[in-house]
Specification:
The chain is 48% helix and 11% strand. With 272 residues, the chain is of the alpha/beta class. Bound molecules: zinc ion.
Amino acid sequence: MHDKARGKDAAAAASFDGRDDHPLGGNAPARKKGSRMGLDWGLNSLFATSDGRLLGRKMLHRLKELDKILMDYTAELHKKGIKLKTDKKYQSLQRRISEYAKNEVGRLLNILADEDILEFVVEKLDFRFGGLSKRLNRILTRAGRAAVTIKLNRLKETHGINTTEVNSAYTSQECSNPKCGYVDKKNRRQSQFHCKCCGMKLQADVNAARSIKERRSFLITTRQAKSVRDNIYDLLGDRHRKQCPSGRHTTVETVGATAAIISAVNQEPSHV
Ligand SMILES: [Zn+2]
C-alpha cells in the first residue's frame, strides 16, 4: 500500500466518532500490547480512570476563578445593554477558557499516552463540572468535547492507541465488580459508590470508568446501541441474575429478549 492510501486508512480508523476532519500528525503502527483503560468524564475531575485515578482535579479550582470573572463581566455587559457576541473582551475571555480546557485535556491525555495503554474505552463525551455556571459549562462542553475528540484521534496517529466509544447507559448505577454487575440507582450517592448487592465500595467516577472499560467486552458501541437503552438495562440485569453474589436477584428470566442483543452487539465495530 502506498503512503497516501495508508494515510487515508489511518484517518478513517482514527475517527472513532465518525468524523474525518482532523489533520494527520503521524502514522504510528497500532499498539499490540498494553492494557485497556476506561475513562469517565467526572463532575469533580476531568477524567476518572479505570485504574483508580482522578485526573484534572486542580482544574476545577481554576475554572471556578474563570467562572467568577465570566459571570461578573457578563452581568456588567447586561447592565450596559451590550450584546455578548459583539463584545471583544467577552469573546477573548471565552477563548481563554476554551484554550485552558484544551490544554488541560492535551496535557492529561499525554500523561496517559506515555503509559502502557493499548486502548482507551470512553463514553459519549459530556463535559459538565459540578458547581459551575451553566454558561461556563456550555463553553467547556463545546471546547472539551472537540479537544478530546481531536486529541484521541491524534494519539491513534502518533502513539498507535486505539479508542472505542461505548454506550454509557447505566454505567453510573452499575457495580463494576466483574462478578456482580448489579444495577441500581441506590448504588450511587454523590461521589461514593456502594453496591447494594455485593457491598463493594469505590469512588463513584472510578467505578463508572471501570464499568465503561468492562462494557468494551460487550462491544456495545454508541452507534449500534443508540436506541436500546432499555435493552441495555435488560442485558445488564440478565448478566447480573446469572451471577448474583447475594442470591437476591436470581428470579426474573429475560434471556430470550436479550439473546438477540448480545448477538447484535458482539460484532467488531468497523471503525474503532
Ligand atoms: Zn456489586
